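User: Predict the complex.
Assistant: Input components as received:
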Amino acid sequence: MTGSVDRRFVVDAAAHRRDAPRFCPSCACALSLTTEFWEADDRRFYCWCGGCGWTGEITGTGDVAVGHEPVSAAPC
Amino acid sequence: MLTAEQNDELTQVEAGTRMGEVLRRYWYPVAFTRELAEFPVKRVQLLGDFFALWRTPSGRYGIIPEPCPHRKASMAYGVVESDGLRCPYHGWKFDTEGACVEQPAERENTQFQSRVRADAGVVEELGGLVWAYVGPAPAPRLPRFDTYVMAGFRDIGWADLPCNYVQIMENAVDPHHVEFLHGRYFEFIGRHEGFTAPASFGKEHVKIGFTPFEWGIIKRRVLKGASEENDDWKVGHPLVFPYNMRVGGGGVHQMQIRVPIDRTTTRFLLYTVHSPDGYEHVEQPTIPDYRIPVLDEHGRHVTNYVEGQDIMAWVTQGAITDRTTEHLGRSDIGVAMLRKMFREQMDVVAAGGDPLGTIRDEHERIDLPCEKDKFHAGGAQFALDFCDMGSTRFSPMLDAIKKIHISAADRIAAGKTGSEPAG
């Protein structure tokens, strides 16, 4: 019964349906609620598991693991 | 961003839906006390259902579903009698417990009133409002929140808004909107209409935080120039689950009430108590209520006052906002937290438990945390801005209210206190 869908962002809605985490990382039950929000380039999912009560954020990282350079490191 | 199914579930209010069943565990204001003193029966819509609400001459209240169990004529046109409400069509009478006590057209040997009950709710009066509980028995206690029982001068502004109540509640855990909707936008409108918007509303947010507690979620903020020692962070103010927000400051105490009338209509009430330090009691035989404007004569939202700006934002999001294509950021984390709370309580009720914020113990008063020095703007100045720039501007009591704040401040300044500050 919700109102009309904003056609400009149906791709984002489809991506959410495709990518939102489905299972609790703690107990492996189906997650009860997953709200997606964005932070810079990241897509973050604020998740809650009604099975074990776990609440947390899940963020996909892709293949690349990003660290940071030590503050005192000399340039190469 | 949610799926369409999650958005549907979150925004339902009807009986038999998961969220509708949560909502039926709470008390709601359904009339002003003065209304039933003026005429003793009223048609009420709540959570998508219609009811007949009445007050007997001795002061007992009753509420039953609007259709008469006989042939469905409206009991809201019923005849109020000392011991019940009589259907205007054929005279069946129901008492406040919902029992059918008379079937006049039936002979004594053909009556069957013990076989038809009217599913009565429970009704109480508190703070100038008539409250109803229409969920499963036994009813919890009506929560006696501080605003409804504290000493002070009261009025109630209200409007019916064409949108789902959840998007209004999401605004209650969205501190950043104040800076823009009531800050930058207010200044913009003020420049065009020739007034000066209150400076305190435009202060920059440095930090926001949310704490779940026994009545809902406490919202906190640190504004530029302030610290975690200021009331805005140290005390904050609460979203009172599932349909209220307690706000205030500078001797103003307010409960913002958002009653789900049906899925796409919300009754917005601003229950305000003025009780500054130095307040001297003013007699109020009845608590005045007044409509606040939503649209102007051109059909545009009236946005030159604080709540009118909120209403514009809530209503223009759509009757039920499309959460499948929204784009939340980190600053919207309170919204995500609230959705989790709604979803948690669906599970609690489905498992047969009492949801958050229901109370079964007898109690005198429930004090809610609420900052006194809001936006570190100074008490009296905040109160006067509240009067001139908020919905109180439309109150028939505006002059009396301003006088209360000014004379209380004068009394304090002169060092002679009035009655002890309430609240």
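DSSP finds eleven helices and 19 strands in chain B.
Let me know if you want any component modeled separately.
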